[in-house]
Design brief:
The protein is of the alpha+beta class. It is about 30% helix and about 30% strand. It contains 3 helices and 4 strands, in the order αααββββ. It has a 4-stranded antiparallel beta sheet, covered by helices on one side. The longest helix has 22 residues, at about 65-85. The protein is globular and about 45 Å long.
């Protein structure tokens, strides 16, 4: 099945290690999940810009790269809604932990006609958990790869 949402329209963000200011951190897995739930509540209400804004203090990358992705997401939102309809909520899919240092949380943003996967990877830095990478895109099929 062809992708309904071109990946270039979504603000897919694969954060790379660039010089960054010290990120805020979260103390526990529970705080990580609470933050991503809040982020997804914003995304599920169609407020992508606010969702990105909630993540930015915890980003382990150069804030300029993060803000560029946020700007792209903001400008793509109307085109995305034209393809898949308005956001109507979100759903938590799963949490995966690798060792003691990485957590991946997977969600979908629910729209009128399509699910949009969101994936967050947090790294446990010496000061606590922070966002290493995150992405949202059209590859719903990837949710089934196990």
């Amino acid at each position: 099945m062809p992708a309904l949402i071109p990946r270039t329209l979504l603000a897919a963000l694969a954060l790379v290690a660039l010089p960054a200011a010290q990120a805020d951190t979260l103390k526990s897995d529970t705080e990580v999940r609470a933050l991503t739930d809040k982020v997804m509540a914003q995304a599920g209400a169609g407020r992508t810009d606010d969702a990105y804004g909630m993540l930015s203090p915890y980003a382990l990358v150069d804030i300029r790269a993060f803000e560029t992705a946020r700007t792209n997401a903001r400008s793509s939102r109307m085109a995305i809604e034209a393809l898949v309809g308005n956001s109507v909520g979100y759903e938590f899919i799963r949490s995966e932990k690798v060792g003691d240092s990485l957590i991946k949380l997977t969600y979908i943003e629910k729209t009128e006609r399509q699910a949009i996967p969101w994936m967050f990877i947090f790294y446990k830095a010496p000061a606590g958990w922070a966002v290493s990478t995150f992405s949202n895109g059209a590859n719903v099929d990837a949710l089934f790869d196990r």
